[in-house]
Amino acid sequence: MQKLYTRLNQKNREEISRGLAAGWTFTHIAFNINRPVSTVLREVRNNCRYKRCYWADSAQQRAYDIRHKQKQPKRIEANERLRSYVLDRLRMKWSPEEIAKRLEVDYPDNMTMHISHESIYMYLYCLPKGELKKELLSCLRQKRKVAHAKRSTITDFISISERPKEVIDRIIPGHWEGDLIMGSKKSNSALGTLVERTTRYLLLVPLVSHDALTVRTEFAKAVKRIPKHLKKSLTYDRGIEMCQHRLFTEETRVQVYFADPHSPWQRGTNENTNGLIRQYFPQGIDFRTVNRQEIKRAQDQLNDRPRKALGFYKPNEAFSKLLTLENLR
Hints:
This protein is an alpha/beta fold. The protein has three domains: 10-66, no CATH class; 75-138; 158-328, Ribonuclease H-like superfamily/Ribonuclease H (Nucleotidyltransferase, domain 5), CATH 3.30.420.10. Helix content is 47%, strand content 9%. The protein has helices at 10-21, 26-33, 37-47, 56-70, 75-78, 80-91, 96-106, 117-126, 131-138, 165-169, 212-224, 245-252, 268-277, 292-303, 315-328, and strands at residues 158-159, 175-182, 190-196, 202-206, 233-236, 255-258. Strands 1-6-5-2-3-4 form a six-stranded mixed β-sheet, with helices on both faces. The radius of gyration is 26 Å and the shape is elongated. Mean pLDDT is 84; it is low at 146-151.
C-alpha cells in the first residue's frame, strides 16, 4: 500500500532537534518519527546552513513561510469578476472585512464570489512591488501585520494549583522557582535564575541562547548539582522556553509546576530576587558580553546578602544549615 505523504510538523521537528542534540544517527531519528531517512536528511540540510545548529522553531517558521508563499490566494487573480469587485471596493476605502461580508450579501448562492477577508489581505501583501500594490495598501485604514506560524506551546503541564501544600507554606525546603532575566532586545540574550523558596538561595544559570533546548539543558545541569534532598519541585511561568519540561523532569526527577498566565505574584520569591539581580545586570544589558566569572560573583554576593525575610540571615547561611542538618542524620 502506498504511504500517504504528510508534512513534518512542529512535534516532528522538535524530535529531530532532540535527536541531533543527543547524537543520534539520521536513521535513528527517522525511525523515531516514522519518516523516511531522506526526509530527515533534507530537513536538516535545508535548515543547517552556514554551520548553524538545527532549531525546530526556525525550521517550522521557514516551512510555514515557504508553504504560505506557494499557496498565495490565487482565487482573486483567477476570477476576473471577483478581482474587479475587490479592487473597486478597496479604492472606495472599504475594508477587506466589509468587502468579504458584502460579497456574501450580493452573491449569496455563488460560492465562486465568496472569499475571506484574510485572503484579501494576503492577496494584497503578495502582490509584486509596484504602483498597484502601493495604491491598494494606501486605501487600507491600517496595515495588517503579516501572519506568522504559531510558536510552540507548553503541553501536558501541571498547574501551580496542584503543587503540594508544603510548597506554599515554605516549611519544607527543596522547592525552587525559575525564570529568565532578559537582556536587550537587540542582543536577544538572557540569564537563567533558580531560587530556593525557603532559604532564598540563588543559582544563576549562564545561557548562550534562550531557546527551549538550551534552557532545558543548562537548567538541568544546574539542578543536578543540588543535593538530592533539596530538589523537590520547580515552579515556572508559562514562558515557551520551558516547553521541554517533561524531558527536564526525566533528567532531574524534579517536577515542574506552571504558574497561571500573567500572575507573577505566584512566583514572588523569584520576582523579588530578579529585582536584586538587576542591580548587577540592569535593563538593556547584553548578556553575551558578561562572562561566567561576573555572573558567579553576582550570585555569591547576593547569597551573602542579609534578607529581611530570613530575619536578616543570609541565604548562604540558611542553605548551609540545611546541608549540615542532613549530614548529621
